[in-house]
Amino acid sequence: MKIRMMFGGQTITATLYDNASARDFASMLPLDAKIEDYSTNEKITYLPRKLTEAGSGPFNNERPGDLCYFAPWGNLALFHGGYRYSTGLVRLGRFDNDFEPLLTRGEFPLRIERV
Fold first, then answer.
1. Domains of the chain by start residue, with CATH
2. Beta bridge partners of 37
C-alpha cells in the first residue's frame, strides 16, 4: 500500500510493508497530526493509539528512508539519517525515491493518507 505525507508545503510518498503493524497503521488513515524533529536523523509524529507489535522483529539493514514505529512511545519514526535498530522499533515501510522534505527542520501540521 502506498501512502502520502504532506507537511510544510511538501509531499512525500512511502510504500508500506505487508506486516500486521503496517496494516494496523493503514487502518488509521487518513490521519492529521504534527510532525517534529527528533535528534538529527529523524522526524517523529505521535499516533492517536498504539499499534500492534505483531510486525516486529530485529533487523540489521537500517538505512535512511525507513518508516518505523517506536512501540515504547507510540510514535512514527521517519528516518532521514543513519540509525541503529533498537528493541521496540518496528519497520513499517520505506519512503519512495526522495525523502528530502524530511530534512526541513521544524514542527508542521501533518496529513497522512492512502494514495
1. 2-114 (2.40.100.20)
2. 43
C-beta separation of 112 from 29 below 8 A: yes
Query: Measured in whole angstroms, how far is the alpha carbon of residue 90 from the centre of its chain?
Result: 10
Residues contacting residue 84 through CB under 8 Å, at least 6 positions apart: 62
Tell me the β-bridge partners of 11: 6
Q: Which residue, among 102, 80, 51, has the nearest Cα to 110 in the 3D structure? A: 102
* Beta pairing partners, 90: 69
Host H or E run for residue 92: strand 89-95
pTM of the entire structure?
Answer: 0.95
Span 23-82, pLDDT tens digits: 999 999 999 999 999 999 999 999 999 999 987 888 989 999 999 999 999 999 999 999
Q: How far is CA 19 from the centre of its chain?
A: 14
Q: Per the structure block, which three cell numbers stand in for 40?
A: 538529527
